[in-house]
Amino acid sequence: MSYCFHPHCQSPHNDRSADRCQSCGANLLLKSRYRIVRPLSRGSQHQTFLAVDQHRPSQPYCTIQQFSAATRGEIEGAINLIEAACDLPQLPDFSAFFEDGNYGYLVADYIEGQNLAEELETEGRWSERQIRELLKEILPVLQGMHDRQLIHGDLKPENLIRREADGKLMLVDLGSVRYSYSVATSTRRTTTTQPTVGERNAMPGRISGSAEYAAPEQLKGRAVPASDLYSLGAICIRLLTDMTPFYLFDPHTNGWTWRSHLKTRVSPALGRLLDRLLETSLRNRYRSAADVLADLERKERLPQAIRKWARWDLAATVGAGVALALVTLMPRSPDPLPQPAFQPAPEPVPEPKLYHLPLRPYSPRTHTLSSGWGSVWSIAVSPDGRTLVSGGEDGTLQIRQLDSTCFHTSGCDPDRVLVGHTGAVWAVAISPDGRFIASAGKDRSVKLWNLQTGTLLEALLGHQGEVFDVAFSPDSRTLASVGEDGKVRLWATTKVSRRYATISSRQILRGHTDEVKSVVFLPQGDRLVTGSADGTIALWDLQAGRAIARISQSSPVWSVAMSPDGRTLASSTADGTISLWDVETGQSLHTLVRQQYPSQSLAFSPDGRTLASGDVHGTIERWDATTGERLGVLKQHSGWVDLAFDPKSQMLFSGSYDDSIAFWQMPR
How far is CA 441 from CA 381, 395, 424, 501, 517, in A? Predict the structure, then answer.
């Protein structure tokens, strides 16, 4: 297959023998030499492709990174960055760097082997020994880059490949490499020339990298060498727990919870080292890779020394060990994250009335669940407004009838608890005809339930990773699911009865190069929209089975929502931006005030006039969907929020990581 490398091509897939793109007409041979096979990854400032070098007799594979550089000065700056790093070990060999049109291209050897995300998928969670080996192998590479005042900027499991030839870990994808923020800003103070790519990427507000592995200062555009160390720590806890770092941080306590998700405990020494790598405060984090290595070696030598002492004086060793434990295991409190400081709406508006719903632990007689109810990850309201469904950390779905007792703090215990998932329930949806519940989550499954009886009708398998979102078509005949594997799966739900279902996999839509976070149907039912961590929003034609339009963002897309009339699309990204788009033209209508924290949930009111957004720290905001004006801020939760409107009223429901559900009566 030949893949069109033109960034704005709407249908880039072509036959291998084609010379020009059948969609946009662009030449498919880059520099009359390189044929692009498929995309490998996408960043905010670059794309990486797998290609074939047709000028060499063996026609070997290579990787080509395409940089969004508009001027010769920027391209030359990118060359300088790559040249500064090209002699470091465990980086790919670079064979060419050139410009074509308004883009720069970097050609490097293709590394045969599995990346660490693939290893985790096939081999499961890592051991402490494997983590220590990873640190000892990668830290010297980072130290070499940092000595040159360079930052990798996009450390993640996908960018660490174990070379098949010798088993060495290779650090790939240098598209996000930049100078340290301090170096770039000091350079700009002493020159009046245009900034290079490295300097431009390091300036305040320039964000790159993957949000789930990026340090807090990096998300603010102020990356420093210690930012790479934070990312390395996030990689380690991902490999130890097989969970994304987003779900390993508790905003309620401003602390990491990765230890509670371990299958096998790690030593206190390694635990403290990882904690220090993951400090949100630069003041408390390791300053250099060399410091981490020294600490790692020191902590490895200590047990050996203790074993030697034990041969001579066991009693002394025990006493010293107890004293050492008392000192080293003292708890440390990370610096609290900065709290959002939102400005009030310019004009007073009626305040929504709040009804707080406490959640009580549920202990079924015939099932063994987790010890407590835990966090609420997802929430949905039935089309008639009478039923509320929530999905929790413990893998259960709780169903509540929204009668008058629900609006009193003493009532509204769940009428039914559905047990079926073996991990957290990331998403729930209720079919428009009010018959079914769809749920999805960490266990990689999608489940279909009868809303009235609570019967599990079918477990839908096929996703190769966690499933993040589900959505029904307006006629309830199609269910869409998206997740970590980057695919959009469509399921036909026509053969369904009250007790069982025969669900078939209708279609698989491919085109995203990273996990898909969110999906929503258009009211007509023949198209849907997805938001992906690859930084794109895609509009799909279901009959054609392909994306017919894309909107590129500078940061991973976390959520998409459609207005009831299907004319306006809302999106939120990892950098805190909320945008409103015209669905037919793809034009931006409004970019709402950038928030301090990203919004993971968006919901339109039934009349389409109000957009509600909920961020990862529990703040809910209301926006005028026509003007983009902020109408007010709702403060009740202290953690991650999911939102849903009652289709029959102005009631907004919010379920939160802080173990609570709240009802908000919106002003008309």
Answer: 18, 8, 6, 20, 12
